[in-house]
Amino acid sequence: MAEFWLPLFRREGINVPVILVGNKIDLRGGQVTNQGLEDEIAPIMREFKVCPLRSVELTWQEVETVVECSALMPLNVSEVFYFAQKAVLHPTAPLYDSREHALKPKCLDALKRIFKISDVDKDGLLNATELNQFQVCRSGYANIAP
Is 116 exposed, middle or buried (0-12, 13-18, 19+ CB in 10 A)? Predict the structure, then answer.
């Protein structure tokens, strides 16, 4: 993966969410623990993903999630399907450029337009009433008491 697929995606300009799944971890022998999994996954995440704390700047950001599983044990099988569904049903790529660490221009334009429409009194801030009205328009009910 690190030597062929991810460099190929980058070279071809393919910007898709990548979920690395290691299976059959029960064949490793010994006891499989979360700490052991983290110790093995950490180097991959450091090489191919931005550190969640952003304390270290890294160059590869294509890997969205790394998960290891075992159908025999069973361990993390449902997590594999959860992350796959999340990547497909709620993709971030149309909204956020992971290489530039910024919202995409069309997303920014849409958010600015939503803000301008919701800012009824045109004071540059959304007060509780305006926020409630936005919530009612979006979901059908208000979440904030005025």
Answer: exposed
Q: Do 42 and 52 touch, CB atoms closer than 8 A?
A: no
Tracing tokens 């290489």 back to the chain, one arrives at: 99
What backbone phi and psi angles, to 5 degrees, belong to 67?
-145, 140
Task: Give the global pTM.
Answer: 0.55
CA dist., res. 11 & res. 80, Å (int): 27
- What would the pLDDT profile of 97-134 be if each residue is shown by its tens digit? 766 778 899 999 999 999 999 999 999 999 988 988 88
In sequence order, the β-bridge partners of residue 66 are 20
Phi, psi of 38 (to 5 degrees): -65, -40
> Residue 23 in contact with residue 76, Cβ under 8 Å?
no
Query: If we measure between CA atoms, which residue out of 72, 146, 130 comes closest to residue 138?
Result: 130
Q: State both tokens at 67.
A: 């998960």
Q: How far apart are CA 101 and CA 91, in angstroms?
A: 15
Task: Report the run of H or E that residue 18 belongs to, with start and end.
Answer: strand 18-22
